[in-house]
Amino acid sequence: MAELSVHREPPVYQEPFYQNYNPPAQNHYQELTYQPHAREQQQPQPHPAHLHHPQHQHTIQQLEPSVRHPPQPSAPSQVVTPVKKKRGRPPKQPVEDGKTQEEENEIEAAKKAKRALNRFNGMSVAEVMAKTLPDVITYNLDILIIGINPGLLSAFKGRHYPNPGNHFWKCLFLSGLTDEQLNFMHDQSLPEKYNIGFTNMVERTTPGSKDLSSKEIREGGRQLLDKLQKYRPLIAAFNGKGIYEIFCKETFGVKAKNLDFGLQPYKIPETETVCYLMPSSSPRCAQFPRAQDKVHFYIKLKELRDEMKGLLPKIEVEETEYSFDLQLAKEDAKRMAIKEEQVDPEYESCGGLHGDASRSSPLIRYQISAVLVA
């Protein structure tokens, strides 16, 4: 029997179904799509005619896990380092086109000069430093306030303590030295109304006291001594510790160490003027930065003035003896502590200790010596 041979055209090539296979959304890899590696692309693809063979089915089943979850190329690890913010002023902007660095510097200098001119109503700093601040002084004042030297704003306005941040005028009112809140515009009226005057150790105007030389300050101390001997105020009040340290060394020949504020042990030579030291009224005073920190010294200044003028009554403390029962004092403290608690079981039992304790506990006697205030 003759064999029949049938010639069949090979089927058109189709891509294996597993290359376009999208697995159902069963896990968190559902968004991944298969992208074959270069090696997989180079491998020969199985012929579609043999895909129905059981061996090929077994091969497909083995390939399915890797097809579903192809290995992804690991991204290189990137370490993000935090950017540290630089302190200080931001860097200058780059110079604009057509402008050189010198032109930029000139523009910046003109802006700074304009700000300085506007501060003193068109006057330069050199012109303000050429001005002086006249003293507000007369004979036989109660208090003469002594500063180090005029500042720029004081010289420009021609007034004492015009800086709005200065604590002088506020402390003067809070202490009772003035009966109303005044400001620098009232400095000329203080000698007549409150018998208070103003002067400075050095007459030259500077932006700060650090601009003064030691020679100027020593010379100013000698001029201040002549001024005090001439006008003879009741109290010479030094507004700042540094002023009195130099004056004390130049006048009394004593190097002041660990100075205490308040009444000083020395009087102005050939006068009855006493020296009183109080902290600087400047807000830059680190030891007493607030006005309320300095009011105490102004109050003591007022008390010293009233005492020297005889306005305060003389206080005589007579010798007195008194005693108290120490045991009763302890019991009183104990009862006060118990009252603060919610449960007070011993409160009633402590009430019967008054009569017995006073007879059994020792008495402590204190004696005060007589003190006469002249």
From TrEMBL:
CDD domains: UDG-F2_TDG_MUG (cd10028). Its main location: nucleus. Residues 136-287 form the Uracil-DNA glycosylase-like domain. Residues 1-10 have a biased composition (Basic and acidic residues). It is found in: Nucleus. One of its GO terms (biological process) is epigenetic regulation of gene expression. Belongs to the uracil-DNA glycosylase (UDG) superfamily. TDG/mug family. This is G/T mismatch-specific thymine DNA glycosylase. The lineage of its organism: Eukaryota, Metazoa, Chordata, Craniata, Vertebrata.
